[in-house]
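pasting for the record
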Amino acid sequence: MNIKPLKDSVKQYLNIHKLEKKFSKAKKFFEQDTNHPSLNVELLEPKHLKVYSFRLDLKYRALFIVTDNEAEIITIINHYK
């Protein structure tokens, strides 16, 4: 599954938190196999909103939605805040 081009706000967050390399690696895995074990893809609550996440590392997650068989990254979050 392809990932749509990132919004400027998401790019800025990745840059500020020095996550560009980790995102690039996770993106590669995601586009090859959305069920790659290191991504830990999961459907978030409430499930009817159909917002998913995948892991960048133990601390950060990318939240995304799927439209027309493409993933759109909504935001990157600190999983523990």
